[in-house]
Amino acid sequence: MRGVLAKGELESAIPLASKIQDQVVSGDGPSAGATADELSRHAASAASLTSDPVWRAFEVVPFLGPNLVAVRQLAAVVDGVAQNAVTPLAQVAGAVTLGDFKPVNGAINLKPLVDAQSQFAAANTALVSATVQVAAIDTSATLPMVRGAAEQLASAVTKAAGSVDDVDRAVRLVPSMLGASGPRNYVLLFQNPAELRATGGIAGAVALIHTEGGQIKLAQQSSSTDFPLYKTPVLPLAEETRGLYGEITGQYIQDVNFTPDFAQTGPLAREMWKRQFGVEADGVVSIDPVALSYLLRATGPITLPTGDVLSADNAVQLLLSDVYARYKNPTDQDKFFAAAASSVFSAVSSGNADPVALITALAQAGGEHRVLVWSAHEEDQAVLADTTLAGGLPVSDASATRFGVYLNDGTGAKMGVYLDMKVGLGQATCRKDERPNYGVTVTLTNTAPADAATRLSDYVTGGDVYGVPRGNVKTIVSAYGAPGMENLGMTRDGAAVGYHPGTDAGYPVSAVTVELAPGQSTVLHFGWLGEKPSAAPLAVQMTPGIHVQETPGGDIGCEFTLR
To answer: CB of 361 within 8 A of CB of 297?
Structure first.
């Protein structure tokens, strides 16, 4: 009877969960609070019915007992989520809306975000705890309906935990970065993937953003030509970084992102800005033209000082191709980039953007690693650390085994717009100890026209200055396995070739330089031996190119065993 009653209470709570979600999203605070109270009563009743001494006494009965234990634990999780997650979230319904992220007269009202921090923190803590509790419930000896309920609850809690964690990070990070506790300054790197770097492209245009009390201002703009080539790295470089990417990583603003780890790039760029302009920034932010095109969906077309109309449809073509045909002087090109970035920044900061479209654009750009953030404040960097915005090396866990593929330009020009990349991942079990063989296949193609040497300007092709024939694309490819893997070497177009083996923060790395003539394509295959048996899905983190790269699956055989 208690079980039937508890089942009824939990079933009564199910529609309330959907109802409160709609009320929270719509900002109906009073209704959300009332629904949360009702849901909590049902959840508390179910937990009470399944946790008294009589119920627990029957938990030792064979066959019946495991079901009773699981139901008690499930009811307790639902009760905990209702009391400690749903209720705090209902309290802030209506207090924080997407509109709060929309600047008004150049400023974001930070008070609603600051006021909501404790509620989101409490809800986040409760949901993280709930995911652990649900995962610990043993349903191996339970009835299918109990097992199904546990799986359903686990899925719902995990999804909710991820969403609330994102919002919790935002309400903690946004106020501090926007100067809620005092003025902040951030160096902005406008990455140009026409000349590739591991995190996107060279920083041709650089700026300083000033924030204070929610106010956002573009305080200063400069070009990479304003920075010297320092005789020695401006900050000490790790030996692994020097070995893989050279000391130039710490000597020139355009090369600080040779490394794919933005946590190394940020301090280098900050120090260079300090040496050149005397301002010690609070962090570094990078963005690329593709991300700008996403933002233009939210702002609508923008007219530049040159008279050009920049839109989501033409931004990439205009900024990464047309500008080089129009302006032969690199300084003029950088000024054009700076004007474009400034115009988009002004449109966003003035509030001339749809907040839903703006957040959607930022989320897409962040997910593709086109927006990166490093903070000099430890508490902010801790919030960023394991997000895509941090630009860290790929982390493997139970959800996926992750690899990295990063490209750095070796042409010394703007031929990156003509380089296409596709990446395939494969896995095979070839050993008695079941340690898996992994394969990462990288296909590179130079899509430049056959007459690129004469059709394209020397600035785009490099003009043979660095020994690369006009129209060719020279690229340094660095493939990262996961920590603990053994490097099995690589092939190019099916044949073994020389490569640079190394490590980076515990990650095994294979690096190779490839040069392709117009129309030429090559296939690189990197092999790794896993540390232990694993059936986790495979994923890859890549240099964000001008177009989103395809990542088709791929199978590998057991014949690939190079050392």
So the answer is: yes
- Rounded (10°) angle between helices 29-49 and 2-26: 160
Structure tokens at 389: 């915005």
Q: Provide CB contacts within 8 A for 349, sequence distance 6+.
A: 103, 106, 216, 217, 218
Which residues are registered as beta bridge partners of 446? Answer: 419
Of 215, 187, 184, 175, residue with least CA distance to 350:
215
Q: What is each CA distance from 251 to 130, 197, 221, in whole angstroms?
A: 48, 15, 20
Segments in 405-444 forming alpha helices (H): none
Helices 144-177 and 117-135, axial angle in degrees (round to 10) = 150
CA atoms within 13 A on the CB side of 17: 18
Looking at residue 301, its amino acid is P
Q: For residues 206 and 183, what is the distance between their CA atoms, to the nearest angstrom?
A: 20
Query: Helices H, strands E: what count in the chain?
Result: 18, 17
pLDDT of residue 552: 62
The pair phi, psi for residue 496, each rounded to 5°, is -65, 135
Distance CA 453, CA 507 (A): 39
| Residues 16-21, mean pLDDT to the nearest whole number | 75
Residue type, 513: T
Closest by Cα among 510, 494, 509 to 559: 494
pLDDT tens-digit readout, 415-427: 999 999 999 999 9
Higher pLDDT, 227 or 19: 227
The token pair at 231 is 């005789």
Specify the residue for token string 């692994």.
240
pLDDT in tens, 267-319: 999 999 999 999 999 999 999 999 999 999 989 999 988 888 999 999 988 88
Token representation of residue 481: 């396995």
Q: What is the mean pLDDT of residues 137-159?
A: 86
pLDDT at 469 over 90: yes
* Tokens found for residue 169: 């990070």
In one letter, which amino acid is 184? R
Pairing of strands 486-492, 521-529: antiparallel
Burial environment of residue 121 by CB neighbours within 10 A (0 to 12, 13 to 18, 19 or more):
middle
- The 3-state DSSP class for residue 61 equals coil
First to last CA, the chain: 66
Of the candidates 520, 502, 521, the residue with the CA atom closest to the CA atom of residue 510? 502
Identify the helix (H) or strand (E) that includes residue 509. strand 507-516
pLDDT at 282: 97
Structure token digits, residue 388: 């895509």
Read off the amino acid at residue 179. G
Q: From CA 400, how far away is CA 465, in angstroms rounded?
A: 43
> Is 165 in contact with 121 (CB distance < 8 Å)?
no
pTM value? Answer: 0.88
Q: In residues, how long is the chain?
A: 563
